[in-house]
Each structure stands twice: as structure tokens, then as C-alpha cells.
From TrEMBL:
Location of region: Disordered: 1-94
Native organism taxonomy: Eukaryota, Viridiplantae, Streptophyta, Embryophyta, Tracheophyta
InterPro entries per the UniProt record, alphabetical: Elm1-like (IPR009367)
The protein, known as: Mitochondrial fission protein ELM1
Signal peptide feature range: none
């Protein structure tokens, strides 16, 4: 078709089969014939000016060509005319309608039943899978996993992170408590409290009284007599405590006064933040303080009493005592005690579940301490000739009495073994009498093989334990013998025949186990023997951990 403003040349018109048929709407408009020629009466309006006047009577003047005619798509009316007639809906009887409705309803019920059945099957499958999974027990994580925070292993209130050591000013007793705390891994988080009582003069006779009663009696005497000569006589020569730890002075400024009420209140108030408090006490004067702390704060503290308290053992959570402390219960021990004193100075009951028996005394000597001491004393002790013999001299006690006679016996035996020794080092205790030390100094002070510690230089005790090849120790000191026996090196004891009562039982038990031998002067120091080293401190620490675990508590790792 030719639109306004366009024309087609006659030779370019399509004819015959090439001619494009016009849409029916254009054919019905009589503007063009089927062969593409202009129909009669269909002249263009622009052909003559007169055509505008007759536009009202022309068919094209009132006919509107729809957009469907231009696009070639039939109109809806034309489509409706070309469409096949729809079949008429048959009219059904009421009975047929009811039957059809019943069929539809039956089919709907069947589909609903199938849907419900499918849901039930799925639910049964889910329940079966869940029940099968519940029978599978997954492995639980181990309770003591290294690196696991303590709060996940029983709660913040069940971990023991701190300790309180209660001492009486005696180095031997306090050394046992600190050694146990060290073995438990709390060496860097403990405080030392000390029970003080008047010293000197008549106070030495009153030291068997309870601390509180002794203090009240002493202050009453001072109030009555003041600074008179009688009071000076009662006081006598004052002896101050000498606190030592690992051979070094602790310092009085770091030692607190032991007050049972104050310690118990501190344990209760800090329980939620710091956890339970471990209380370790040793010595006669600490018994009443330790038992009072447990009585006032039983849910917040764990009290360990070292050495037999000579009272009811159920007043403490754990009692660690040497086996020879129970010697008074034996028939031979009963004969050595006057009848009127047996009730007061002997154990009242045999060992129970809360009693730990050891062969010797507890101490601070372990493998870590020996390695550190070996490094510290390397330059001084390593170049010495071998074998190195170390001699430790203590002082007489009520159960092991001696004097100058023992010093002469030791000097004679030492002269006999000097030929088999490469070097000899001698140390005195603070309890060593002057007459004993003078004899040793006079006979060996100038000997080239012998070195005598003067008490002024740093204490070489730990270095001697690390570097010595053999030991000679006086029988009065159970602590020094226990420390030497923990090294596994030969230990000779001199003066054991002078001991009595439970001290005699201690030496007899060690000799029967092959740990110690008597020093007679006939020994060859270069000879050695082997024995299982004493590990009383480590064994006691294991029992403390076990007792804490039974209570639901653990120690900080």
C-alpha cells in the first residue's frame, strides 16, 4: 500500500502470486482492489480540491480505519465472525447434578485422605530417625584437657589458687609447710602468717601452754611487775625468730600475725572471687589457730596440719605426720612414758583416712630446686676434687643429747676417711653448741681439703645437696637427714645410738630400708650404694590432691 507522501512506480508493483493480499479490513474499506489498484470512487483527497466538498457523502468520509487494519490483524468483531460457534451446554437433570456432585465430593475426600496419610508417614519417619539418633552416644570431651580454662572444669569456686602458711618461727617446721605448698604448685601465691609467743626466761617453761593463755599470763605479769628486776629475770635473754626460706632470710616485714578470725573472714569474703583457701600449718603453736580457722569457715578452707597435733584428728581436713610420731602407741614406746603423761603427749587414736604417714620430714628439696642450686653454685663447687663429702652438724635435743664427746668422735672418724675424700665441706646449724664447733674448727680449720662455712657468706646448703657425693649428718636433725635421703646419694649418720624414743624409731626404720648407714670412720667415701630416694613431699602432695578431689575441688595447674 501507498501511504501519504509516498508513491510506488508501476513497474515495481507486485502482481499475481507476488502480490501481497490486503487485510480484510482494508478490502472492506473499498480503497484498494484485491490486485492493489485503486478502487473506483476511492481517489485521494489531495487529487482534486472539489473532493473536500463531497467528503460527507463518500464512504471513506465516515469510515474509520482501526489499528488492526493497518497491522494486518483482524479485529475482535472479525475474529468473532470467523470463530466456530460454541457448542451449547446441555441441560442436565437434577439427579445427574447430584450424582456429579457426589462424585466430586468423593474424589475430594479421597485426595484429602491421601494427603493426611502422606503426612502421617512423614511424621513416623521423622520420629523414627530421632529415636535412632538418641541411641547414639557421642564421645564426651575429657575433663582434664590441658589448656582448658578452669571455669569450664567445675566452676570458678572449685579451684584452689592460693595458700596460707601458718608457722611458729621454727625454721624446721615452716620449711615443711612451704615445701608442701611448693609441691602443690602454689609457691608463687602463698602468704606466711606466724604465731608469736613470749620468748626467753620463764617463758620457755610456759611454752606448753596454749598461745592465747600464755600471752595473757605474760601481759598480766608485766602489768604487775613492770620493768622491775624480777620481770627482767622472768624475761631472761630474749631470742628472736630467724626466718629462713631456701637459705635466704624472708624478712619480718613480709610476715603477718596469725589471727584465726581474720584469716577465716578473709577466706569467706574472697571465696566467690578467689575460690577455696588452702591452709597449711606445722608446729605445736599452730594447732589451735589452724583448727579454729576450719571451725569458723568449714565451707571455704581446706586445713592441712603437718606433724601430729596430739589432739583429735577430725579437727583438721588432713594430717601429715611421720610414722615415728605413732611410736608412743607401741608397747616399747609406752614403757618410756610416765603413766600420768601418756594421755597428754601420746596420740589418742590410730591413723584414720585423713592421716598421711611419711618416713621422714617434708622439705623443699625437689629436682627443680636441685637443678637451680647446681647452676647457682657451679663456679664454686664444680672445680672441687672428687669425691665431695658434706658434713652437716646440728645440735642436741631432749631426745638426742650429746656434746663435746660427739664432736671428738666425729673428728676421729673424719681423720680416718680424709684419704678417700677429694674435698670436705662442713656446715654448722644455729643450734650447734660452741664447744662442738670449737673442736671441729681447731682440728680442721687449716686442713687443705676441708672448708668450714662461717655462717656469714650465703648459705651453701642447697648447693651442697646438689653437688655432694656423700653426706655425714648428726642424728638429731630429722629434717637434714630427710633432705639428704631425697637425693639418692649415700648418707651416713653419726650419734644415732644416743637417740631415744621416737627418734630412735626413725633411725631404725631408715637403716632397715638400707637408706642410711652409721658413720664409724672405716668407710671408703669413694664407694657408693643405691636406694630408692625418699619422696615424702611428693607423696603427701598427691594425697592432698586426692582429698581435694573427693571434696569436689581441684588445684590450679
Amino acid at each position: 500500500p501507498t501511504f501519504r507522501g509516498q508513491s510506488r512506480k508501476p513497474d515495481q508493483r507486485r502482481t499475481g502470486a507476488q502480490a501481497r493480499p490486503f487485510p480484510p479490513a482494508l478490502q472492506s474499506a473499498s480503497l484498494y482492489n484485491n490486485n492493489g489498484t485503486r478502487a473506483r470512487g476511492g481517489e485521494d483527497k489531495s487529487a482534486s480540491p472539489s473532493s473536500s466538498s463531497s467528503s460527507s457523502s463518500s464512504p471513506l468520509s465516515t469510515r474509520v480505519i482501526s489499528p488492526q487494519a493497518l497491522t494486518g490483524k483482524p479485529s475482535r468483531s472479525a475474529e468473532a465472525g470467523l470463530r466456530a460457534p460454541r457448542p451449547r451446554r446441555l441441560l442436565l437433570s437434577p439427579a445427574t447434578d447430584r450424582r456429579r456432585g457426589a462424585l466430586i465430593e468423593e474424589r475430594g475426600d479421597r485426595l484429602l485422605s491421601q494427603s493426611i496419610l502422606a503426612d502421617v508417614v512423614v511424621l513416623v519417619l521423622v520420629i523414627s530417625v530421632v529415636a535412632w539418633m538418641r541411641t547414639i552416644r557421642l564421645p564426651e570431651p575429657p575433663s582434664g584437657t590441658p589448656g582448658m580454662p578452669e571455669i569450664f572444669e567445675g566452676g570458678a569456686y572449685s579451684v584452689v589458687r592460693r595458700a596460707v602458711v601458718i608457722g611458729n618461727g621454727c625454721a624446721g617446721a615452716e620449711n615443711q609447710s612451704i615445701g608442701l605448698v611448693r609441691a602443690l604448685g602454689l609457691a608463687d601465691n602463698h602468704a606466711l602468717y606466724r604465731v608469736t609467743r613470749p620468748r626467753g626466761g620463764v617463758n620457755e617453761l610456759l611454752r606448753w601452754l596454749p598461745v592465747s593463755f600464755h600471752k595473757k599470763l605474760y601481759y598480766a605479769l608485766r602489768r604487775i611487775f613492770g620493768d622491775s628486776q624480777f620481770m627482767m629475770l622472768l624475761q631472761g635473754k630474749k631470742v628472736g625468730p630467724l626466718p629462713y626460706q631456701n637459705g635466704r632470710s624472708i624478712g619480718l616485714s613480709s610476715i603477718l600475725e596469725a589471727d584465726a578470725r581474720q584469716i577465716a573472714a578473709m577466706a569467706r569474703e574472697t571465696f566467690e572471687k578467689e575460690g577455696p583457701l588452702l591452709v597449711v600449718a606445722s608446729g605445736w603453736d599452730t594447732i589451735s589457730i589452724a583448727s579454729s580457722i576450719r571451725h569458723m569457715a568449714p565451707q571455704n578452707v581446706f586445713v592441712v596440719q603437718i606433724q601430729h597435733p596430739r589432739t583429735h584428728l577430725d579437727r583438721f581436713d588432713l594430717v601429715i605426720t611421720p610414722q615415728h610420731d605413732y611410736y608412743p602407741l607401741t608397747p616399747s614406746g609406752q614403757q618410756e612414758i610416765p603413766k600420768f603423761l601418756r594421755r597428754w603427749i601420746t596420740p589418742r587414736e590410730p591413723p584414720g583416712n585423713n592421716v598421711v604417714l611419711t618416713a621422714g620430714a617434708l622439705h623443699q628439696v625437689d629436682s627443680a630446686a636441685l637443678r637451680a642450686a647446681a647452676l647457682t653454685w657451679h663456679n664454686e663447687l664444680a672445680p672441687l676434687s672428687r669425691p665431695l663429702l658434706v658434713i652437716n652438724i646440728g645440735g642436741p635435743t631432749c631426745h638426742c643429747r650429746y656434746g663435746a664427746d660427739l664432736a671428738k668422735q666425729l673428728a676421729d672418724a673424719l681423720h680416718s676417711v680424709l684419704a678417700s675424700c677429694g674435698s670436705v665441706r662442713i656446715s654448722f646449724s644455729r643450734r650447734t653448741p660452741e664447744k662442738v664447733s670449737h673442736i671441729i674448727l681447731r682440728q680442721f680449720g687449716d686442713h687443705p681439703k676441708v672448708y668450714i662455712w662461717d655462717g656469714e657468706d650465703p648459705n651453701p646448703h642447697m648447693g651442697h645437696l646438689a653437688w655432694a657425693d656423700a653426706f655425714v649428718i648428726t642424728a638429731d636433725s630429722i629434717s637434714m637427714i630427710s633432705e639428704a635421703c631425697s637425693t639418692g646419694k649415700p648418707v651416713y649418720v653419726i650419734g644415732a645410738e644416743r637417740c631415744k624414743w621416737k627418734f630412735s624409731a626413725f633411725h631404725r626404720a631408715l637403716r632397715e630400708r638400707g637408706i642410711v648407714r652409721p658413720f664409724t670412720g672405716k668407710e671408703d667415701i669413694s664407694d657408693s650404694w643405691c636406694y630408692p630416694p625418699l619422696n615424702d613431699t611428693g607423696d603427701a602432695a598427691s594425697r592432698v590432691r586426692q582429698a581435694l578431689a573427693e571434696r569436689g575441688w581441684t588445684l590450679r595447674r
